[in-house]
User: Fold this.
Amino acid sequence: MTAGEVLGFTAPAVVGAALVTAPAAVEVSALVAAGLVEGALLGAAQASVLRRSLPVLRTGWFVMATALAAATAYAVAMVPVVLGDDVASLPVPVQVAGGAVLAAALLSTIGTAQWLVLRRAVPGSVFWIPATAAAWAVGLGAFLAVSTPLWQPGRSYALTVAIGVLAALVMAVTVAVLTLPAALRLAAAGTEEHG
Assistant:
């Protein structure tokens, strides 16, 4: 699963580094498309692992759900970019509330989309949503902890992409470790259900 996310995140890293000075509409569209690629690779990697214990898992649907959810997460993350300076002019309580809503939407997209497929293979698998949301919250924090101090204006394109991939590796390992108990629970439930 970690390799799928790192490989998948290469698409947004390459696109983001290439379009750092592009107009917001171009950057947003390209990053949402790159999110599709990232989600498809992540979903394929996760499905290949989960399918071992959940042979009834509909792999194609799982991959498609993950890809669409990742693209949606990128679209949600880009809302502040699209709004630009308008965000700063909003009252602080509105900024905080809006940020909380966007964060909840972003963090729940992948788990919710995957659960819509998983629930057919593992009844009662709704725990996957909060488990993945919490893991992504910590994973994104780890990504920012690595990338923020390293990404500086004027860095070369190759170095910017390398920083993105390094931060993605940290994020992917974090998410994989934190979702492991939930994945094992899915596997155990799937074995009981279909064993």
